[in-house]
Design goal:
By secondary structure, the protein is an alpha/beta fold. It is built from 17 helices and 16 strands. It folds into 3 domains: 9-284, Aldolase class I (TIM Barrel, Alpha-Beta Barrel), CATH 3.20.20; 301-373, no CATH class; 401-527, Alpha-isopropylmalate synthase LeuA, regulatory domain (Double Stranded RNA Binding Domain, 2-Layer Sandwich), CATH 3.30.160.270. It has helices at 28-41, 55-64, 91-98, 112-119, 123-139, 151-157, 159-171, 188-201, 218-227, 249-259, 273-284, 305-313, 339-347, 359-373, 382-392, 442-455, 506-527, and strands at 9-12, 45-47, 73-79, 103-109, 143-149, 176-181, 207-211, 232-235, 301-302, 331-332, 401-410, 419-428, 431-439, 465-473, 484-491, 496-503.
């Protein structure tokens, strides 16, 4: 709720600092979708842009009054007044007021180098710019968040002047003072010393931190600042922003809540942080790193046999938190280093009573090592591993077989697009079906032809599609005779699964992965009682 009290107040600046990241562009519709997602998560503040800088931000704020946020408050962003004019005459400050937001973030200079060389004003004039801007916005009834730009660099260069800029904002009525590591070049020890001095000098101030990731230390610096007294934190949910990005709130908030017991979000919302971070990333058309702390797909993936054995016996042995607390899942990866304990845990889905001393498990572990030596990789192909397991346990009966197939490609000259053709003959319950298809590439044509042939028997396949396709050369020394590994990701619109194929023939490797993909879907449907053969 908007009036809920938190130990640490979160301001997300995805819509302002985030769009300064390379390749990040939001339409007005995108900005509204991001704001709604952040509100759903429950951050205290959404810094939604600078209405005086571009038409899109101006349009967003115009529309903002028409949608109601449940948890978050909006704030507009801008700078202190220009030199030589009154705050009330500054067009940019008027645009901040016209945005109609409850809060306003303004930034001012804390580093005397910027005052002299960038603003090119006297130090005293800069202090007036800060105080007069703050006082003007407060007189208009706004909550003022003052961002002390380059504060840490300024504090190192001239501590007394940097502190005087903070004093100017506070005495004019600023509600929050945010210390900014704008260049992202500081280490935690310097952050700690500066924050401690600010909180000691201004004991009644609400102090915040805004860190950049240029040394890869934004998370560490932000946590150090909070531990030193900051109760307001700024960042972007997915971590993107100017240059190397901002503090990634998707990774920070779980640490604050789970490690430091500092409440940042409405009760029960932490479990959705991974899901909503990915939503923001999708709107921005960027990919969340699989190894992002807490919420990445690999954050709770275990591969080494000793680790898996420990996890099975006691999850605390190799997991620093319960993945369910942040809505993530544990993944036990199948590989030659995984050991029998990992295999047993995966096989229990098929054979619940199996143990690691079962002869089939022992055989499967050995077979897995041999297959991996040949280039097969099952850690990213769970569906293929399940089919392999079913074969070993005698629990697999193919739903179809490919009696014959042919793939051809045309290589036209000029502007014509490369075109491929595939023909396939399948056998299902002693009935045959022949189908042909055309595709941009040979794999696409084969996939389409196979699905056409099988859909007449299994109508549910119509909703399945190939979503991703990756090829890896296993040993480049063999040149064009090298074996390749093909990974295929498929979806039915609700869930995804991955399969693998290996061969010196890329078409044959693709066929193996596609067949596993279709078989896995048919097995899943059959177990749910939904599969029907026409």
């Amino acid at each position: 709720m908007k009036n809920e009290k938190f130990d640490v107040e979160i301001l997300d600046t995805t819509l302002r600092d985030g769009v300064q990241g390379v390749g990040i562009t939001f339409s007005v519709r995108d900005k509204i979708a991001v704001a709604e997602t952040l509100d759903e998560l429950g951050v205290a503040w959404i810094e939604a842009g600078n209405p005086g800088s571009n038409p899109k931000d101006l349009e967003f704020f115009r529309l903002a009054s028409s949608f109601k946020l449940k948890n978050s408050k909006l704030c507009a962003f801008g700078s202190t007044r220009k030199k030589g004019i009154k705050a009330c005459d500054d067009v940019q400050l008027r645009s901040l007021l016209d945005a109609g937001t409850e809060g306003v973030t303004i930034f001012g200079k804390s580093w005397d180098l910027h005052v002299k060389e960038i603003l090119q004003v006297q130090p005293e004039e800069n202090l007036l710019m800060i105080s007069e801007t703050t006082a003007f916005l407060k007189s208009e009834g706004r909550i003022v968040i003052y961002d002390a730009e380059h504060f840490f660099d300024g504090w190192i260069a001239n501590p007394s002047y940097a502190l005087s800029t903070i004093k100017a904002a506070l005495e004019a009525g600023a509600d929050r003072i945010v210390l900014c590591d704008t260049n992202g070049g500081l280490f935690p020890d310097a952050i700690v010393r500066a924050v401690q001095e600010v909180t000691k000098t201004f004991p009644n101030a609400v102090v915040g931190i805004h860190a950049h990731n240029d040394c890869g230390l934004a998370l560490a610096n932000t946590i150090a600042a909070v531990q030193s007294g900051c109760t307001h934190v700024q960042g972007t949910l997915a971590g993107f922003g100017e240059r190397c990005g901002n503090t990634a709130l998707g990774a920070l908030i779980p640490s604050l809540e789970l490690k430091l017991s500092l409440r940042c979000l409405p009760q029960g919302n932490l479990v959705r942080i991974g899901e909503l971070t990915r939503t923001v990333a999708e709107i921005a058309n960027v990919i969340i790193s699989d190894d992002m702390p807490y919420i990445g797909l690999h954050a709770f993936s275990h591969k080494a046999g000793m680790h898996v054995d420990g996890i099975i016996k006691n999850s605390r042995s190799f997991e620093h938190v319960n993945p369910a607390l942040i809505g993530n899942d544990r993944h036990l990866l199948m590989s030659e280093v995984g050991g029998r304990a990992a295999i047993v845990e995966r096989v229990k889905k098929i054979e619940p009573s199996v143990t690691k001393d079962n002869p089939v498990i022992i055989s499967l572990a050995e077979k897995l090592k041999n297959l991996e030596a040949e280039g097969w990789a099952y850690e990213g192909a769970d569906a293929s591993f399940e089919i392999l397991t079913r074969r070993e346990f005698g629990r697999y009966t193919p739903h179809f077989s490919i009696e014959a197939y042919r793939v051809m490609s045309e290589h036209p000259t000029g502007e014509k697009i490369l075109c491929s053709y595939a023909w396939v003959k399948v056998l299902v319950d002693e009935k045959t079906e022949v189908a042909a298809a055309e595709g941009v590439g040979p794999v696409g044509a084969l996939d389409e032809a196979l699905r056409r042939a099988l859909t007449s028997f299994f109508p549910g396949l119509a909703k399945v599609r190939l979503e991703d396709y990756k090829v890896r050369v296993i040993d480049g020394k063999e040149a064009t005779a090298a074996r390749v590994r093909v990974l295929v990701e498929s979806t039915d619109g609700h869930r995804k699964w991955n399969t693998v194929g290996v061969s010196a023939d890329i078409i044959e490797a693709s066929r193996a992965a596609i067949v596993d993909s279709i078989e896995y879907m048919l097995i899943s449907e059959a177990e749910k009682g939904r599969m029907k053969i026409d």
